[in-house]
């Protein structure tokens, strides 16, 4: 069991930011990653659909004999994690709670901004978690639905992205926030753009890093951490998608610390 992999899934490529942090923080762990590239984006879909998708993906990951699962998608973490934890007898970690915790600990004036998909903002789950960690905080949310397709198209440093980001973030700049949660796993790939617009007075919270630390704690607590020697990345990490593996591989190779060699398309609807 200790040598079994961690299952990580997202609506597309954004969850690779979480996988990257897991690789950095707990390099002994194997990873099986699934990107639901055929059905991205999740942010505009209903709670029932997100639960259905998450259930299918976890069923697939269990066929890969994973020992724990990370829902590396804020929308799925917001809508589906409680149901998934009830349905499956395996440790499941989401990205929302760890990010909310560090934001509550970081803010000085109690005014926290949140950017995310429409689903994440609509769920209110970040605000609920933040207030459970620190009362008397105000969370100002702003949906940024175009960020996901811009990232998926590789337009990380593009004038169109700059224009869209300025339009989305302009209203947050007038809200006196001192902390901003990048509440979608795609958004850390736009960190430099967001930081430039928001200015030095706003601390950016990347839930991906906090999630990797939370996963490390869970593996230790459950006594399932891998203590064996690490192998080459090609044997440590496997990647699956529901559509267009070549495009996924190209994007993954641009942000991961090594070139991936194995990407396979599967029919997720079979699960």
Note down, in words, how this protein is organized.
The chain is an alpha/beta fold and 271 residues long. It folds into two domains: 6-94 and 209-270, 3-Layer(aba) Sandwich (Rossmann fold); 97-207, Rossmann fold (3-Layer(aba) Sandwich), CATH 3.40.50.1860. The chain is 46% helix and 17% strand. The chain has helices spanning 16-25, 47-63, 74-87, 96-106, 118-123, 125-133, 147-152, 159-173, 191-198, 207-221, 233-236, 245-255, and strands at 6-10, 31-35, 68-71, 92-94, 111-116, 138-143, 179-183, 203-205, 237-241, 263-265. The strands form two sheets. A six-stranded parallel sheet has the order 4-3-1-2-9-10, sandwiched between helices. It has a four-stranded parallel sheet with strand order 6-5-7-8, sandwiched between helices. β9 (237-241), α12 (245-255) and β10 form a beta-alpha-beta unit. α1 (16-25) crosses α10 (207-221) and α4 packs across α10 (207-221). The radius of gyration is 18 Å and the shape is globular. The model has no long low-confidence stretch (mean pLDDT 93).
